[in-house]
Amino acid sequence: MEFKGVYTALITPFRNGAVDYDALTxxxxxxxxxxxxxxxxxxxxxxxxxxxxxxxxxxxxxxVKCAAG
Length: 69
Fold this sequence. Notes:
Layout: E1 7-9, E2 14-15, E3 18-19, H1 21-33, E4 38-40, H2 53-66
């Protein structure tokens, strides 16, 4: 498999110490509108060591669901 195009290491937005899933959805939609080739949730923008393994999976699931797979 060859990767081509732009793959965004997506930030994880927080509000009051918790993941802001509404803001996360808006970020994913903005990337899709910009026609990126791929989205990398929890993509080492600094938050990955600060979220629990359960949160990590929920973030990935939310991004995949929003991006329709």
